[in-house]
Structures are given as C-alpha cells and as structure tokens.
C-alpha cells in the first residue's frame, strides 16, 4: 500500500478526505424519494441489537429461519456484508455511531461520556425539527442529558429490554406523537438481546430477580445445542454448544422485537416515509469475538431500507463500511450540515451505485466494560487482517466479559488434555504484540502469520509491511495518542514504504 494514499483513504474508506471537505448528498435522489421538487425530510428508525454476531441473521449466512424479520428487512433494502463498528464493546461503539468519530476523538474510549465539544446526532436533528426518542440502552450514551431525548425509556421498563410487546407500545405512542405534532422523528430503538444473560441460562437466573424475569418475554422459537453451527473460531464443545443455543434463542427474541416495532411503523402509515437502519453494536460476547479486534469482533449485520433510494434486495459484499458512516448519512438525509472533521464518510452513493476508496477498515479497542485497558489497533483489507496489541507483554493476562458464561470454562477444561486447544487458550490470554492473518485462507483467524512474515519475499512479509504503513498513516491522520509508542516499539528501524 502506498503510505501517501493510505493516509487519505484508510479512515474507513474516504473518511479522512470527508473530514477535510464538505460532504454532499445528491439532492436529485432526495427529490425522487420525496416525490416532488423539494428535498424530503424522512423519519429515521435506527434499530440496534446488542452483541449479535454479523453471521447470525439468516440473510448474513446464519441458520435458515432464525431471523425472519431481519431477513425481510434485508429483502426490502440493502445488506452490507463488510460493515464494521469501530470498536467492539457497546457504549463506545454507540458513542462513535452518534458522533461519527473514533473513540479517541470523541472522548468515549470506554464507558465514560462524550466530550462536551463534540457534536452529537440529536443536536443536529433537533435543529431540523425532529422529535427524538430512545428505547433501551439509554445510559449507554453519556451524558444522557446532552441528547435531549423527547422520549427515553430504559431497560427496566421494557421487560429488561427483552419484551417485544412493550417496545411496540412505546414505539406506537411515539409515532402517534410525531404525527400529532407534524414533526419528523428519530427513534433509536435498542434491543438488549442477545446480550448476556442469554435466554434460559443459569446466568439469567442469577442476574434477574423473579420480578424482573416475569417481565421478560419468551422468544417465538427456542434453540437446542443440536441446532447450533459452531463458528470456526471456537472449538466444538458441549459447553460452547449449550451457550450458543441460548444465544440463538435470545437472537430470535431480538428479531421478535424488531418485528413488533416495524409492525407499529406500518400501522401508523409511516413505513414509506421512514429510513430504517438495522445493526449490531458489536460481535457475540464469546471468546475471540466481542472486546477484541478480530473480524468477528467488529463486523456487524448492517441493513438500510430507504424507500425510493436504497436498492431493494441488494447485497454489498465489496465495500468496507463503518457504522460511523451513518452519522453523515442521517444528517444529510435530514437536511442538516454534518460537522467538520468526521471520521465517518457518507455512504449514500453506495445506496444507488458504487464508491471508491472503501477497500480498507481500521478498528480499535481501548477498555472492557470492567474498565480494564487492553489497547489494540487493527487494519483489515480484502485479504489481510493485522492487529497491534499494545498491551501484550508476555505477562499481562487478558480478561473480558466474553469469558463469562459456559464457553470459556469449557475451553479451559478441555485444554487440559488437548495441547492444540491449550495453546489457543494461552494465546488468547497473552497474545503477541503483532498478529497477521490471511483471511482468504484462514477466515476464522486461527493461524497467526506475524512470525512467518520474516521470510524474505513471502506474501506475509509484504502484507505486514503494507498493514504497518497503513496503520501508521491512520494514526497520523486521526491523532492517535499511541502513535509515538507504535513508532518506538514496532517500527523503529523498520521500513514501512
């Protein structure tokens, strides 16, 4: 990769360029959507699920029939198979979505607040007359008062974020209010599924009181261990299968919640005038996924249904897209001017055609929900995945919520008699400062090629050099505070061109 190009292109496509220049939205597209000679002011329904892996929905390669509503939404809109969140843990992921900036540029690297000087989406939408509401995950956007929600209902009043009927009632009331006031709306509806505790798990019994459990809905379909297809990055063990079956049941309930909200949108007669965006805030909360920088950590099942604009039944498997790109898209759809220096780049051109510069992705990690710091940086392209683990020193041991539940104990127990699994368990705990994966031949990132990159003339050597240069360019462009450390510890004396 040419380093000069990477410094303009790597921030999630053309984000660095977009930060330096105004972002334009083709107004003819908006007029076509509006059906008249003026720009439209569409409603926006942003529906998020919590900790759903990108390959869980049926339309993204998951079990057939597991997510009928998500699949229907994809059939009515566009599905992006190379979409990623910038960071694979909920609050900073959501903060990046609502600011269009990487965590180190908006202040919310972990579970803290967005900086006061950083514009947020609802600031801009309010200026366009939008009614703003949020269902679930209210405190995962901080400080809450800055968002100025006209409606805010959190987890305890939504069946612990797991009752489709309660979401439906709240959404229906919000839609009615928007119609009565003659205002466009922005509703961020956040399912707490399939976040832990999973449906039917012992963890659920421990975490929820009997009174809370009584408000939690049953999924429309439950799954058993025999139904599970174990992803390649995890071993096929009984404990893993059991936990994945509970996760799949929770995923089905998340789909039920989406169905309930969309039914109310239809009943209100607002579906044709509403942009519906669906995504997960990060990958599944199991080892080698959430709270890391692997592909399965940050990849998200992004769907955009925009009647009259987004192509229906279109699957984009080519372009790398970030959830930060949704910030300028929503601003421009609402007729608001995006603030300068965004890290997200408007992806509206992809809804009707193609867009250059989207052949790379940078993701990061800072701290876990327990506020343990494990700094990571990742560069992915079509073939290669490169990770810098700034925390890996041979002694520090990784720990995160993805090691709760059944899977990690099952892995550590089985590792006692399995040298290959024992090596993988130890690797997960300690890592190496650099990891490199050939994702064409190793899509589950099982074989770290960083050490073999020392072989002169090898494909791995060239890839490592290019990804290092790309990461350095991104660090310079975004002001990453670890840039000097990266230069000192990794690139000292190493050519990057």
Automatic annotation (TrEMBL):
Keywords: Hydrolase, Signal. The keyword Repeat does not apply. InterPro entries: Alkaline_phosphatase_core_sf, Sulfatase, Sulfatase_N, TAT_signal. The keyword Hydrolase applies. It holds the Pfam family Sulfatase. Residues 1-20 form the signal peptide. One of its GO terms (molecular function) is arylsulfatase activity. Coiled coil: none annotated. Transmembrane segments: none annotated. Residues 42-331 form the Sulfatase N-terminal domain. Belongs to the sulfatase family. This is Sulfatase N-terminal domain-containing protein. The lineage of its organism: Bacteria, Bacillati, Actinomycetota, Actinomycetes, Jiangellales.
């Amino acid at each position: 990769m040419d380093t000069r190009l990477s410094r303009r292109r790597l921030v999630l496509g053309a984000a660095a360029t977009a930060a330096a220049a105004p972002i334009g939205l083709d107004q003819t597209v908006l007029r076509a959507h509006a059906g008249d000679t003026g720009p439209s002011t569409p409603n926006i329904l942003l529906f998020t699920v919590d900790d759903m892996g990108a390959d869980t929905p049926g339309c993204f390669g998951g079990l057939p029939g597991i997510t009928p509503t998500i699949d229907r939404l994809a059939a009515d809109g566009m599905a992006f198979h190379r979409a990623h969140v910038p960071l694979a843990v909920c609050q900073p992921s959501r903060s990046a979505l609502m600011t269009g900036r990487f965590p180190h540029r908006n202040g919310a690297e972990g579970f803290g607040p967005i900086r006061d000087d950083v514009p947020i989406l609802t600031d801009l939408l309010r200026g366009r007359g939008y009614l703003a509401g949020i269902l679930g995950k209210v405190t995962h956007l901080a400080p809450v008062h800055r968002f100025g929600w006209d409606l805010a209902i959190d987890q305890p009043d939504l069946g612990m974020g797991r009752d489709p009927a309660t979401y439906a009632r709240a959404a229906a009331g919000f839609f009615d209010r928007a119609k009565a006031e003659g205002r466009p709306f922005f509703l961020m509806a956040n399912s707490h599924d399939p976040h832990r505790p999973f449906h039917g798990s012992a963890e659920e019994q421990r975490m929820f009181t009997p009174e809370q459990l009584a408000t939690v809905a049953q999924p429309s379909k439950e799954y058993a261990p025999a139904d599970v297809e174990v992803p390649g990055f995890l071993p096929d063990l009984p404990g893993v299968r059991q936990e994945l079956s509970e996760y799949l049941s929770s995923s089905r309930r998340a789909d039920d919640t989406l169905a309930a909200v969309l039914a109310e949108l239809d009943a209100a007669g607002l579906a044709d005038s509403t942009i519906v965006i669906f995504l997960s805030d990060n990958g599944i909360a199991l080892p080698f996924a959430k709270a890391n920088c692997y592909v399965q950590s940050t990849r998200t099942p992004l769907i955009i249904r925009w009647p009259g604009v987004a192509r229906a039944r279109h699957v984009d498997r080519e372009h790398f897209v970030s959830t930060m790109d949704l910030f300028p898209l929503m601003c421009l759809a609402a007729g608001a001017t995006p603030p300068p220096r965004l890290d997200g780049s408007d992806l509206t051109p992809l809804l009707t055609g193609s867009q250059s510069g989207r052949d790379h992705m940078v993701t990061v990690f800072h701290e876990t929900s327990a506020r343990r710091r494990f700094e990571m940086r990742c560069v992915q392209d079509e073939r290669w995945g490169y990770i810098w683990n700034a925390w890996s020193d041979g002694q520090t041991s990784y720990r995160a919520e993805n090691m709760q539940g059944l899977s990690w104990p099952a892995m550590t127990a089985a590792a006692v008699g399995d040298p290959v699994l024992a090596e993988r368990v130890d690797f997960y705990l300690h890592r190496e400062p650099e990891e490199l994966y050939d994702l064409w031949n190793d899509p589950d990132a099982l074989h770290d090629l960083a050490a073999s990159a020392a072989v002169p003339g090898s494909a791995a050597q060239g890839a490592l050099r290019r990804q290092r240069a790309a990461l350095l360019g991104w660090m310079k462009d975004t002001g990453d505070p670890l840039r000097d450390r990266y230069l000192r510890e990794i690139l000292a004396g190493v050519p990057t061109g």
